[in-house]
């Protein structure tokens, strides 16, 4: 099964992706996580991506596409995958289509998790991530900044109000057009991402089980 998740930052793509990946035994491939890994390990890719990520801008396509190309060639991705955060513009969507065509496969579902900006801003500005285990929470649900694993809940560097609004602008200008691109291929399934996590999950499973 080849699936991609499209949605604004904070739409819950990462959380949903984790459970879909377990249920359907397909690798969860998040380009955001991959870039953060490179950043943490000071790799050449990380050093180049940093300036863009800090500003909430898209990392250049040549770097992103190459990273995804290599990842999709790994053995665990041969039987299917779930892409989270890629493609994020039309150039990347066309690149992915060509790549899959060369490999003799194609995308089955494009899950579009739709959430309005107001909700996104509330979610992201209160989002806290554990610096040790990566668990995600919200300031409204935390008694202290200490995680049960012993780590500390911190704000992601790109979750400041200014960068959130830049990321939303990038989403509307560059990522939303790919929804129309995939709609023309009849692949888009709209998911209401403003609901609670379990209800978003239910809608996704309904689509994938068909
Ligand atoms: P978000 O919470 O904004 O959806 P991600 O964790 O998916 O964020 O990505 C964080 C950052 O990594 C993005 O703001 C961008 O700089 C970079 N990034 C992730 N995926 C891509 C992509 N497909 N193309 C270009 N840049 C990307």
Structure description:
With 210 residues, the chain is of the alpha/beta class. Helix content is 49%, strand content 15%. It has nine helices and eight strands. The protein has helices spanning 13-24, 31-40, 44-55, 61-72, 90-102, 117-125, 161-175, 177-183, 197-208; strands at residues 2-6, 28-30, 81-84, 109-114, 127-130, 136-138, 153-154, 188-192. The strands form two sheets. A five-stranded parallel beta sheet has the order 2-3-1-4-8. Helix 1 (13-24) crosses helix 9, helix 2 (31-40) crosses helix 3 and helix 6 (117-125) packs antiparallel against helix 7. The longest helix is centred in the last third of the chain and has 15 residues, at 161-175. It is globular, with a radius of gyration of 17 Å. It starts with a strand and ends with a helix. 30% of the residues are buried. Adenosine-5'-diphosphate binds next to helix 2 and helix 3.
Overall CATH architecture: 3-Layer(aba) Sandwich
Percent helix among the residues?
40-55%
| Overall body shape | globular
CATH fold call: Rossmann fold
Biggest β-sheet description: 5 strands, parallel
């Amino acid at each position: 099964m080849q699936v991609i998740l499209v949605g604004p930052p904070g739409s819950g793509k990462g959380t949903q992706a984790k459970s879909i990946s377990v249920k359907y035994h397909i690798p969860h491939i998040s380009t955001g996580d991959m870039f953060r890994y490179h950043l943490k390990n000071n790799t050449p890719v990380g050093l180049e991506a940093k300036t863009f990520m800090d500003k909430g801008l898209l990392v250049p396509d040549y770097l992103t596409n190459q990273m995804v190309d290599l990842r999709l060639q790994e053995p665990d991705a041969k039987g299917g995958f779930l892409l989270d955060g890629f493609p994020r513009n039309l150039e990347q969507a066309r690149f992915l289509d060509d790549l899959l065509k060369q490999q003799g496969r194609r995308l089955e579902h494009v899950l579009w998790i739709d959430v309005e900006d107001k909700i996104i801003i509330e979610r992201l500005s209160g989002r806290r991530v554990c610096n040790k285990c990566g668990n995600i929470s919200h300031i409204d649900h935390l008694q202290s900044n200490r995680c049960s694993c012993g780590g500390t809940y911190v704000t992601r560097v790109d979750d400041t109000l200014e960068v959130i609004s830049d990321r939303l602008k990038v989403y509307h200008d560059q990522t939303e057009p790919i929804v129309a691109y995939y709609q023309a291929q009849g692949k888009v399934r709209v998911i209401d991402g403003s609901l609670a996590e379990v209800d978003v999950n239910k809608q996704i499973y309904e689509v994938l089980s068909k």
